[in-house]
Design brief:
Structural class: alpha+beta
Helix content: 25-40%
Order of helices and strands: HHEEEEEEEHH
Shape: elongated
Number of domains: 2
Oligomer: single chain
Strand content: 15-25%
Distance between the termini: 34 Å
């Protein structure tokens, strides 16, 4: 199920033309992709990754990780992953030494309200920046538009931001 539907956003954007739904859906998809680069998947999804195990520890590229569902070694033999522990930052510990390809659940069981609000706000920002000028110096809510990521969106995303390198 989508975190945010076109019908919900049409209501927020005050768009009454149902013919605009595909454009709203495309804007939601664009905003979702951008936010997921910052905080990881908003919804639960199954991922597969090739990993290298060192001292029983492996790292997967997409997180947060909810669970590890299966593993296969380099010979294609299924590996028991019941003892694998999920750690913050996409780190898997207690991995069998032969683990090579891992299938896991990444994302969130349910999207937190602040992430949904950030997505909604980014969709609104993108939508308004593509509409013809309305004669207002600033949007009706008095918030000046941001250029890369509106401050309001960045503030909502901050507690969920994935760690990285500067």
């Amino acid at each position: 199920m989508a975190v945010l539907t076109a019908a919900e956003m049409a209501l927020r954007l005050n768009v009454r033309d149902v013919g605009m739904e595909p454009e709203i859906e495309a804007t939601i998809a664009e905003a979702t992709a951008h936010i997921e680069q910052i905080v990881g998947p908003l919804e639960q999804s199954t991922r597969t990754a090739l990993v290298s195990v060192s001292s029983g520890v492996a790292t997967v590229p997409v997180w947060p990780v909810l669970s590890v569902t299966s593993g296969v070694d380099s010979a294609g033999v299924t590996v028991d992953v019941s003892a694998v522990k999920v750690r913050p930052g996409g780190v898997l510990s207690s991995c069998p030494a032969s683990l090579y390809e891992v299938t896991y659940e990444a994302g969130r069981v349910s999207c937190p309200a602040d992430l949904k609000a950030a997505l909604s706000e980014l969709v609104r920002h993108l939508w308004q920046s593509r509409r013809p000028a309305s004669g207002h110096a600033t949007p009706p809510d008095g918030q000046a538009p941001g250029y890369l990521l509106p401050y309001r969106v960045a503030t909502l995303l901050e507690p969920h931001r994935l760690a990285g390198f500067a």
